[in-house]
Amino acid sequence: MSSNNLDQLYRQVIMDHYKKPRNKGSLENGSFTVDMNNPTCGDRIHLTMQVEGDIVKDAKFDGEGCSISMASASMMTQAVKGKSVDEALQLADIFSNMMLGNEYDDSQDLGDIESLSGVSKFPARIKCATLAWKAMEKGVKENKQ
């Protein structure tokens, strides 16, 4: 697949998550909530997660922001459900390295998350893509059992 076709596919995946976000809403019985914003561009997120034992049972988000920010939140909530807290943090580390253009562990199937890899070429947009991930990291680290 040519680079141009791959870029187009990635744009389509991002727009799909933006227009039809997965896990949008809030949890009434969440283990924790985290509110964060990106004052540079106005993105904001309200993340609620339910963690039982060491497993992320559910994750939902609400907020507003650009397509990259909201698509990333949708992808993140999908990716961490059913994972252990440590696995969720490992995914956040992989994502952070991908955003910074660093080498990362690509042995895991990142699924739709990989469509955000091109954001690393646009430093001003990295904070948009990482906002939800930073909220998840903050929440699980502060509430680790």
UniProtKB/TrEMBL annotation:
| UniProt xrefs under InterPro entries | NIF_FeS_clus_asmbl_NifU_N
Domain annotation NIF system FeS cluster assembly NifU N-terminal: ranges: 10-128
Q: Tell me, what's a Pfam family for it? A: NifU_N
Residues spanning the signal sequence: none
- PANTHER family tied to this protein: IRON-SULFUR CLUSTER ASSEMBLY ENZYME NIFU HOMOLOG
Q: What is this protein called?
A: Fe-S cluster assembly sulfur transfer protein SufU
Provide the species name. Answer: Chungangia koreensis
